[in-house]
Design a protein that fits this description.
It contains eleven helices and 20 strands. The protein is globular and about 65 Å long. Strands 8-7-16-17-18-15-19 form a seven-stranded mixed sheet, sandwiched between helices. The longest helix is centred in the C-terminal third of the chain and has 18 residues. The chain has about 425 residues and is α/β, with parallel strands linked by helices.
Length: about 425
């Protein structure tokens, strides 16, 4: 009898593990269960009736250094659904001092861009970057702000936005050691590793629907509205999966991959230690009418913002999307209040004279990622459990990466590779 691998969770970790497992020459059945009718987890899209278009729950930059993300995109035939600027540059504006600049982080094994003033943030010297490499010697309990002086200009114009973008955690809380791992995996890789990409249409069209299609094409099965309630065990072996409306009996060869969020796993397997503290990401989409024209620098698809609440601005046709990471401090405010605060910044940046606020949608992902602090990152569990047929995958699993798209897909690939080789 062929073994069945039950993947519980339809986010990127679940989809990537399913795609990878089905490429194996082994005879194995794959069933992927999603608790709702929407796939993608925190990387999803939905059709908005008011905007009359598809909206993503958040904005995600994909960089060329995300090797497993691009492998996944290639596997599902979706590489051509991304877009990128012709040249690698990150435009920024400092709304407090009304200054703008471009960071051009082109590198080939060595981040030589830091040697040229026109490639660095405004008024940041080469020596400022050299001093910052103290991060390489950070201890496991140190935060980024323990290493980089928070009063320095390079902290405000480079390390703070970089840390928040990569870790969704403020430098005063973020693990310096984890940030350095990210630097090693990006700045010191060849062939332009920081080249940024975004999806052309939606996250769903690029990352989710093609993954589902590929799993079905390979012979896998997809089941929606299967909400996990419990797993029954005997002698550290999972014998039965209990969903809200149905149960599944497991055979001796069967395997379960849990790609659920940490708070769900804690209810199913309370003995496993997981990160507990979370950070919010807030996204606000503005539907621009014909009276409001916004053009980003050099027709880029994004703009970084320093000195305000806004972190990143993305533009896709007539929808302007603003991302605010590590946004727990905004949870106390109403949507109306937030829209006014953010639109005030947008008016200042683009010198808009109109007094009204366009139609908007606010999406708060209150548990977007776990708090990637020195204390929390050491609570990340391994993909193996004490149960012989239960494995874990997700962007919060310990694989040396932060909680990103790349972290989720890498986790899915890792467990699929292990099962294909050892089970």
């Amino acid at each position: 009898m062929n073994k069945t691998i039950h993947i519980i969770g339809g986010g990127l970790a679940g989809l990537s593990s399913g795609v990878k497992l089905l490429k194996s020459k082994k005879k194995q059945n794959i069933i992927l269960y999603e608790s709702t009718s929407l796939f993608g987890g925190r990387c999803r899209s939905y059709n908005d009736k008011d905007f009359k278009c598809s909206l993503d729950n958040g904005n995600h930059l994909i960089i060329k250094a995300y090797k497993n993300t691009f492998r996944y995109l290639k596997e599902i035939g979706s590489t051509n659904t991304l877009k990128y600027n012709e040249n690698t540059f990150y435009p920024f504006v400092d709304i407090k001092y009304s200054k703008s600049w471009e960071v051009k982080p082109y590198s080939n094994f060595i981040p030589w861009w830091i040697f040229f003033s026109s490639y660095r943030p405004d008024n940041i010297s080469f020596l400022d970057f050299i001093k910052s490499f103290k991060l390489a010697f950070s201890k496991k309990n140190q935060r980024v702000s323990d290493i980089i002086n928070e009063n320095s200009l390079i902290y405000k114009r480079f390390w703070k936005p970089f840390t928040i973008a990569v870790l969704n955690t403020h430098p005063k809380e973020a693990s310096a050691k984890l940030l350095w791992k990210v630097i090693i995996k990006t700045l010191f890789l060849g062939n332009n590793p920081l080249q940024p990409f975004v999806v052309k249409k939606s996250l769903n069209e690029s990352l989710i629907k093609p993954g589902i299609k590929k799993i079905l094409k390979y012979g896998g099965k997809i089941k929606t509205n299967y909400r996990l309630k419990k797993i029954n065990f005997k002698n550290n072996f999972a014998k039965e999966i209990i969903f809200q409306n149905k149960s599944v009996i497991l055979n001796e060869e069967d395997i379960v991959i849990l790609t659920v969020p940490p708070n769900i796993l804690n209810k199913i397997l309370p003995n496993i230690t997981t990160p507990k503290k979370n950070n919010c990401i807030l996204n606000i989409h503005f539907k621009l009418d014909k009276n409001i024209t916004i053009i980003l620098p050099k027709n880029s698809f994004f703009l970084g913002v320093i000195g305000g609440l806004t972190d990143w601005i993305f533009k896709k046709e007539n929808v302007l999307s603003i991302t605010i990471s590590a946004a727990n401090n905004l949870n106390m405010y109403s949507n109306e209040k937030i829209s006014k605060m953010i639109w005030k910044e947008i008016k200042q940046i683009f010198k808009i004279q109109k007094n009204y606020i366009p139609k908007y949608k606010i999406i708060r992902e209150k548990t977007a990622t776990f708090l990637q602090s020195p204390e929390e990152i050491f609570k990340k569990p391994k993909m193996h459990t004490k149960y012989s047929n239960i494995f874990l995958a997700g962007d919060w699993i310990d694989n040396g990466l932060p909680a990103t798209i790349e972290g989720a897909i890498t986790s899915g690939f890792n467990i699929a590779h292990y099962i294909n080789e050892n089970k």
